[in-house]
């Protein structure tokens, strides 16, 4: 295998790993936020608007770690600085 | 399928200035919003009891509530700024469902421009509301040692805003493009619906976060008084 083939292979595998491992953490975090939000909604249905709004903001914050992993995976696949430009 | 994730499709060169596809789609989104919302504005002025006017008022009340609840008091400037952000991102997500139309928010440069707008609006709103020294006091708040931390947080949250919007919009777009290349008919429809939902949700989240950041700058010092 040539040097570039090895680099491409490692990049593809790393992109998959990045996305897989990055999604785990975000999934756990978002499930906890969802559970806490449901709990709060059941306790205080009157505050549904505020709870939902803050829940969405928290979800977006937690999700950004997965999105950063996605961007890194996309960089590895489509804008890899080590591979020759296509 | 041509994957243009980080590269940019140049349509025309105007001398040394490239006219890219993102520029064209941004202008198209703005024109679409203007064309769709100008009649609503006229309807509110002319026939306040009509359906179109009711829809316009509902939309405006949604945006005003969003700003009022995050800032604590009504703020007309922030309503205009946040409302424009929301309508642009949501309109881009809606137009992205058209075949062959890549929303401008699938481009990292476009989302970075939106995030930089928020980054610049924070000191602008803060200085206008609190005065120069009142605003910059915030950076030295618990103790002057926190100054670098405040700086890093401002920069990293701007980066996060840009990357979050780009990642969400681009991922939806890529997934739909992949499924279309694989199957084609009808199978991508649920994924397109999910893409639309995520696009509207991201517009909401971007708007909320922008309002929270700017609201925090406006409210500097109110917390200590309370």
What does this molecule look like?
The complex is a heterodimer of chains A (86) and B (226). Chain A is mostly helical. Chain A has a single domain, classed as F1FO ATP Synthase (Up-down Bundle). Helix content of chain A is 84%, strand content 0%. Chain A has helices at residues 3-43, 48-78. Chain B has one domain. Helix content of chain B is 73%, strand content 4%. Chain B has a two-stranded antiparallel ribbon. The longest helix of chain B is centred in the last third of the chain and has 36 residues, at 147-182. The mean pLDDT of chain B is 85. The chains are: A mainly alpha (86), B mainly alpha (226). Chains A and B meet through helix 2 of A and helix 6 and helix 7 of B. Chain B: Key component of the proton channel; it plays a direct role in the translocation of protons across the membrane. Chain B: Keywords: ATP synthesis, Cell membrane, CF(0), Hydrogen ion transport, Ion transport, Membrane, Transmembrane, Transmembrane helix, Transport. Chain B: The chain crosses the membrane at residues 80-102, 108-127, 174-194, 200-220.
Q: Let me know the average pLDDT of chain A.
A: 88
Q: Please identify the oligomeric state.
A: heterodimer
- Which segments of chain A are poorly predicted (pLDDT under 50) over 5 or more consecutive residues? none
Write down the domain tally of chain B.
1
Q: Which sequence of SSEs, written as H and E, runs from N to C of chain B?
A: EEHHHHHHHH
Q: Any low-confidence stretches of chain B, pLDDT <50, length ≥5?
A: none
Structure at a glance:
The complex is a heterodimer of chains A (86) and B (226). Chain A is mostly helical.
What are the SSEs and their pairings?
The complex is a heterodimer of chains A (86) and B (226).
Chain A: H1 3-43, H2 48-78
Chain B: E1 10-14, E2 17-20, H1 21-46, H2 51-71, H3 76-95, H4 108-130, H5 132-136, H6 147-182, H7 189-218, H8 222-225
Antiparallel strand pairs in B: 1-2
């Amino acid at each position: 295998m040539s040097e570039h083939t090895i680099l491409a292979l490692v990049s593809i595998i790393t992109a998959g790993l990045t996305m897989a491992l990055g999604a785990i953490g975000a999934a756990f975090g978002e499930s906890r936020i969802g559970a806490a939000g449901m709990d709060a909604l059941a306790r205080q249905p009157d505050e549904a608007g505020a709870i939902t709004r803050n829940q969405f903001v928290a979800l977006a914050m937690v999700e950004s770690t997965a999105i950063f992993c996605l961007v890194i995976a996309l960089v590895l696949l489509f804008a890899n600085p080590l591979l020759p430009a296509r | 399928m041509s994957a243009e994730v980080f590269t940019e499709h140049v349509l025309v060169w105007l001398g040394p200035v490239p006219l890219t596809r993102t520029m064209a789609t941004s202008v198209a989104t703005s024109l679409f919003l203007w064309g769709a919302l100008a009649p609503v504005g006229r309807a509110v002025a002319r026939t306040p009891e009509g359906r179109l006017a009711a829809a316009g008022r509902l939309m405006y009340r949604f945006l005003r509530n969003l700003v009022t609840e995050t800032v604590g008091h009504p703020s007309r400037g922030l309503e205009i700024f946040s409302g424009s952000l929301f309508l642009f991102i949501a309109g881009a997500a809606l137009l992205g469902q058209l075949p062959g139309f890549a929303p401008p928010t699938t481009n990292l440069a476009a989302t970075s421009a939106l995030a930089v707008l928020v980054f610049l609006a924070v000191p602008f709103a803060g200085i206008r509301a609190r005065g120069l020294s009142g605003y910059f006091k915030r950076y030295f708040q618990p103790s002057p040692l926190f100054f670098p931390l405040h700086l890093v947080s401002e920069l990293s949250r701007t980066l996060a805003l840009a990357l979050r919007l780009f990642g969400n919009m681009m991922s939806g777009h890529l997934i739909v493009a992949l499924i279309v290349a694989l199957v084609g008919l009808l199978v991508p429809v649920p994924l397109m619906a999910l893409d639309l939902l995520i696009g509207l949700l991201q517009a909401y989240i971007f708007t909320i976060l922008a309002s929270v950041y700017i609201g925090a700058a406006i409210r500097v010092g109110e917390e200590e008084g309370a």
